[in-house]
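Quarterly update, task 2.4: nicotinamide-adenine-dinucleotide-bound model.
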Amino acid sequence: MSDTAVPTVKLLIDGMFVESRTTQWRDVVNPATQAVLARVPMATADEVDAAVRAADTAFRTWRKTPVAARMRIMLKMQALIRAELPRIARLLTNEQGKTLADAEGDVIRGLEVVEHACAIGTLQMGEFLENVAGGVDTYTLQQPIGVCAGITPFNFPAMIPLWMFPMAIACGNTFVLKPSEQDPMTTMALVELALQAGVPSGVLNVVHGGKDVVDAICTHPLIRAVSFVGSTAVGTHVHDLASRHGKRVQCMMGAKNHAVVLPDAHKEHSLDALAGAAFGAAGQRCMATSVAVLVGEARDWIPEIVARARQLKVNAGVEAGTDVGPVISRAACTRITGLIAAGAAGGATLELDGRDVQVPGYTDGNFIGPTIFSGVQPEMEIYTTEIFGPVLLLMSARDLDEAIAIVNANPFGNGVGLFTQSGAAARKFQNEIDVGQVGINIPIPVPVPYFSFTGSRGSKLGDLGPYGKQAVQFYTQTKTVTSRWFDDVASAGVNTTISLK
Ligand code: NAD
């Protein structure tokens, strides 16, 4: 295909899908074939500014839109996305690589947040207490804060944008979204459906790009809050820059998620869960299990873990029966295979090596098969680095206390799993483990949106997480009103104290 035949990804500014005037473009590439699917612009500073100004203007009216009108748009959006699920999942598989079934899951987990946003009328209610003093009432308003921005990663191009703009808009804010430049087409398909559902011009805007666009968002004086999901290095930069520019910031970042396997665990269920969580989506989930800590005799289960991984089918995501698709890019492939080489050279035992996997019909794809190391020590590079590929590290521990100590010594705190049939062990674990999201016989404990996403420590900056009650707090400003209406009772005279009487 010649360059001119490749479609371009548009910007969305003030309700119009427009071609960028930039001179800098990058290809959106199918990771299973290297086919160029589209070209995405690196938006200019003027385009970012135009998007933010459109959002600022739209905020003046959108913030006063009746809550029922906002909820009806969310209801319509969820119906449109649900109806378009197969089309969006296919688009997602083509540009991101994950299997079609997993791509549907990506959309559905995001759709759950839209469903939750349909109840914003109840979620955004303030509080009221009468007679805080004689004839005095106090109440709180959860008011929208203004123009909010979202910056999203490549690994969930449907779910993560849907973590952000529906809740922000439902609360009465306007939004500027910066999707991942590696797979922006899925996000744009969802944005088109949002407009079809009735999101007015300027309420949702989209700019594309990399560091320059992100920095412009973090420093723009009209943006009040920034929500970021991505790597720790970029998230830390976004947090620091946007905070210095006076914005409310939430950053969900990198991870090294452990699963602790006790010898009393239900073996079949637990090892199946482990293989799915380690190798599903080619390990490119922020909540993927990347380390299993085998406690006591559970260390004897290594051959069975390897056998399960060996059975998984590596192929293009569009092919029926695929378990593990390609990783996102050639660069990611090179980085991951380099880390596997470093692991082998660094003294870990390579139980299963996925580097030379062959995928007939897709010889150009970025494929890495399931890879397993045992004998991993905390100081090894494969342990200290987020690999973000289909690589599972196995460690061993004498007992639950030692396993908890290993997990708590790791700087990340996104997710952790425990496999056991013991309620007492599970209770001790949930109490003592210093990780924000805990699964008990659940390998990927991403909460449903009535709760919030609660990664912790090195996996998060900012106090409030996406969706659930915390998102309402993040996307609103609490205003407290204390009021008295004078009646005919005579004044008690001048009150020169701070006390309410
Ligand atoms: P990334 O940090 O490279 O990119 C995220 C966003 O930042 C993208 O929109 C990108 O364009 C932008 N960006 C990239 N480099 C930048 C720079 N130098 N300055 C400013 N902006 C920049 O992340 P990714 O590779 O797209 O996604 C994978 C990472 O995201 C992994 O670390 C994963 O753990 C993390 N992640 C975390 C969560 C979570 O909830 N904690 C969820 C999904 C992904």
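Highlight for this quarter: The longest strand covers residues 136-144.
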